[in-house]
Design brief:
The chain has 392 residues and is of the alpha+beta class. It has three domains: 15-129, Acyl-CoA dehydrogenase/oxidase, N-terminal domain (Butyryl-Coa Dehydrogenase, subunit A, domain 1, Orthogonal Bundle), CATH 1.10.540.10; 135-232, Beta Barrel (Butyryl-CoA Dehydrogenase, subunit A, domain 2), CATH 2.40.110; 241-386, Butyryl-CoA Dehydrogenase, subunit A, domain 3 (Up-down Bundle), CATH 1.20.140.10. It contains ten helices and eleven strands. A hairpin with a 2-residue loop joins strand 10 and strand 11.
């Protein structure tokens, strides 16, 4: 006996009842933008390994999505939960598009907002919020990802100026950025600098041959005797606490964003099995298919609830770094499992760009290890529970 579906992926647990009318309105707006402006092109961008970053930044700026959770300077001052929902809708289209917004707002803009001077904030943030200026965040180095404390990029004094030398790797938006937030080791510890990308000695090149995050610009930065004035230094940033605080901001967006990717995969799979006939009946009519869909829907709902809970904690100013690690570890891990399982339901069709599931799975392979690998987040959580650091 067949019956009409009584629930969808999003109504199964009525999670929309946990959102405010403003949240729902914003989510609808961003979802429509994604469907109309982004989704028609994303497969081509992914296949070509090219994405019109400046054009998209302008569009995103007009919607008020860049640095939307910051106060003043042309930023919207939204709740953390609202920002999370935006990340969710953008990553439902592609992780690379969420990365564009995350790097701009939660890494580059947040670094200036939290650790910069008033003059730096006034000079850069309004333009970055409007999408007129693009930023990148130079922390990771060729030999130092999970251990940023080992960085070899240096900053030394020369009179009142600073001279920077070194390289950074896996930098989103690096070759299209107008300003790079560069972290370097000086005599008195790790410092942050605003580096306009037209400064002599600064160069960036695209990293190619990627199998993941292809709809995102990934770059390698080189600094060869880059001379900066004293006021290029982020005056409030001293030590690794500053860049790590920025990473925590970006990780929060991933907690929500990964849910969007998983939701898109599951919705695609549900739609597909309802129309694909196997042995003279829809694939949806088999118990193994329904068991897979049910298990994925349960994990997706749990991930969504975790994201919303962390959003509320952040809005209340109570969130702790290990809690963000719980969200990033769980939600990305479950999202990639869902993407892979959905691929099995689509069979051979699942490996094409006609459907989003393997594209999402490939992207999530990067999301799984950037902004802290799963192992790093396990150690963060382990230290919080035991009081013993196991990083060394």
């Amino acid at each position: 006996m067949s019956t009409a579906a009584t629930a969808s992926i999003e109504t199964l647990l009525d999670l929309d009842s946990l959102l405010t009318p403003e949240d729902l309105e914003l989510r609808t707006m961003v979802r429509q933008f994604g469907e109309q402006r982004l989704r028609p092109h994303i497969a081509d961008w992914f296949e070509a390994g090219e994405v019109p970053v400046r054009e998209l930044a302008s569009d995103l700026g007009k919607l008020g999505l860049l640095g939307m959770h910051l106060e003043g300077y042309g930023c919207g001052g939204s709740t953390a939960s609202a920002y999370g929902l935006v990340c969710q809708e953008l990553e439902a289209v592609d992780s690379g598009l969420r990365s564009l917004v995350s790097v701009q707002g939660s890494l580059a803009m947040f670094a200036i907002y939290r650790w910069g001077s008033e003059e730096q904030r006034e000079s850069w943030l309004p333009r970055m919020a409007a999408g007129e200026a693009i930023g990148c965040f130079g922390l990771t180095e060729p030999d130092f990802g999970s251990n940023p404390g080992g960085m070899r990029t240096t900053a030394r004094r020369d009179g009142s100026d600073w001279i920077l030398n070194g390289s950074k790797m896996w930098i989103t938006n690096g070759s299209v950025a107008d300003v790079a937030i560069v972290w370097a080791r000086a005599d008195d510890g790790v410092l942050g600098f605003l580096v306009p990308t037209d400064t002599p000695g600064f160069s960036a090149r695209d990293m190619t041959h990627k199998l993941s995050l292809r709809a995102s610009v990934t770059s390698e930065l080189h600094l060869d005797d880059v001379r900066l004035p004293a006021d290029a230094q982020l005056p409030e940033a001293q030590g690794l606490k500053a860049p790590l605080s920025c990473l925590s901001e970006a990780r929060f967006g991933i907690v929500f964003g990964s849910v969007g990717a998983a939701r898109d995969c599951l919705q695609s799979a549900v739609d597909y099995v309802g129309t694909r006939e196997v042995f003279d009946k829809p694939l949806a009519g088999y118990q193994l298919t329904q068991a897979k869909i049910a298990d994925m829907a349960v994990e997706l709902a749990k991930a969504q609830l975790l994201a919303l809970h962390l959003g509320r904690l952040k809005d209340e100013g109570k969130i702790r770094p290990e809690q963000v690690s719980v969200g990033k570890l769980n939600n990305v891990r479950e999202a990639i499992k869902i993407a892979r399982q959905c691929r099995t339901l689509l069979g051979a069709n699942g490996i094409t760009l006609e459907y989003p599931v393997l594209r999402h799975a490939n992207n999530l392979e990067s999301v799984l290890t950037y902004e802290g690998t799963s192992e790093v987040h396990q150690l963060v959580i382990g230290e919080a529970l035991t009081g013993v650091s196991a990083f060394r």
